[in-house]
Amino acid sequence: MQSSGTSVRRKLSPTIIGHYSMTGEDQAFDGRNCAKIDMSWVKASGKKYLKTRMDLNEVQLEDMKDDNNDSLKNLQQWILENPECMSPKPHFVTTRRVMRYLLTSIYPQMDELLVIHATKIGETIYMYHVASEKEEQKDKSVSGKKRKNSERTEEDKRKDSSYGFKFERCMEHGSKASTGNNGNKSYYVVVQAKLELERSSKPDHYTLLYKAEVDGMNKDFYTDDIKQHPNVAALIELKTCQLKIDAGARDKKKKQTGKLNVDAKDKKKTGMPKFDAEKQYLKPYTMRNAWAQCWSVGIPSVVCGFRDKSGVVWCLRSFRVDDLPDLQKRNFNKIDFSPDEMENGLIKFLQWAKTEVKDDEVVYELTVTQPRLLDNFSVKQPPPDKDRFRSSRLSPASQFLLLDFVQEMRSN
């Protein structure tokens, strides 16, 4: 199988070996027709406003795809169509989301537990992420004022998440800034990677195979040849963040209008808000998560649309992924962000999982206790490394691999 595009960091060497798309309201698997998601944007220098404002509120999301589906079903279908990718057998098959969660699990999170289900066939362990049952029960037990605050917080999260989807649609080539493109499609690459361990370790590396959803591709490098795998250098990660309005402009606006934020209709009358484009940065936690998302694929660039509180994007900036740790250190040095520590945390978990997931076709629940961010913004620290990881066996009914897939992997 021919690869096309490898990005190398100190410990991970990812290579794109395939791609597929999901289309239609039921997100049906399509291994042949890859969705056209090339991005049409002027490389932002951080010094110019958008010529055409993007009002994300005007983009409808009735057909928004389910981004919470982290199962391996679609990847299994792709593997069955491309069996050569399993020779030799990788140590792990998983998703980019699992990789990101494991990388960031050493830092404070809203959820105390990270839960992963895993099963083994031969020498390969298959893993995917599931919601923490403990956290779901906690959410149900919230009452009174706390419940109202929690509901407002969840509503804000949903709104922010919808802005992300809407921004992706508006950035597609040929889309209208006011309405975006059809969001009823998603595009994935399949990545094969070698993760280096300590030289004294046996083995001295792990091989991984995982799927990763891709937000877009630089239009200059886009090709309609669906047989050609995308060059990793052309891939783009998209984010939205809140616009940082100039402090002087904020004070003047509040004095004139009696309110700090003007809505979208007011902006059409008064013009764009005053801000310094060079001072627009990703939020520190977004920087960290974006780095973790891009690291596993080798995506070199993050393009961020900076929006006001009413959902209007006024400014685009691009950031090199390799620059994010230094940017974060210079601008938000109170937030921990160490790529080396994140990589080491991932390796520790994989080495532990190898010792725990022993028996074929048994489903294990693997949990990671994370530092937890409390309501007063203090942090509840997890136990020592050796006690952070827990495992238990689940019933056969918990098996998440397709029967046909299991039989095929057994025979090979």
TrEMBL record:
Gene Ontology terms: biological process: NAD-cap decapping; nuclear-transcribed mRNA catabolic process
Recorded superkingdom: Eukaryota
GO CC, alphabetical: cytosol; nucleus
Domain RAI1-like: 14-245, 286-372
Cofactor(s) needed: a divalent metal cation
One Gene Ontology term of the molecular function aspect: RNA binding
Main location per the UniProt record: nucleus
Disordered: region residues: 136-159
Keywords, ordered alphabetically: Hydrolase, Metal-binding, Nuclease, Nucleotide-binding, Nucleus, RNA-binding
Protein name: Decapping nuclease
Organism name: Hyalella azteca (Amphipod)
Name of the gene encoding the protein in the UniProt record: LOC108676193
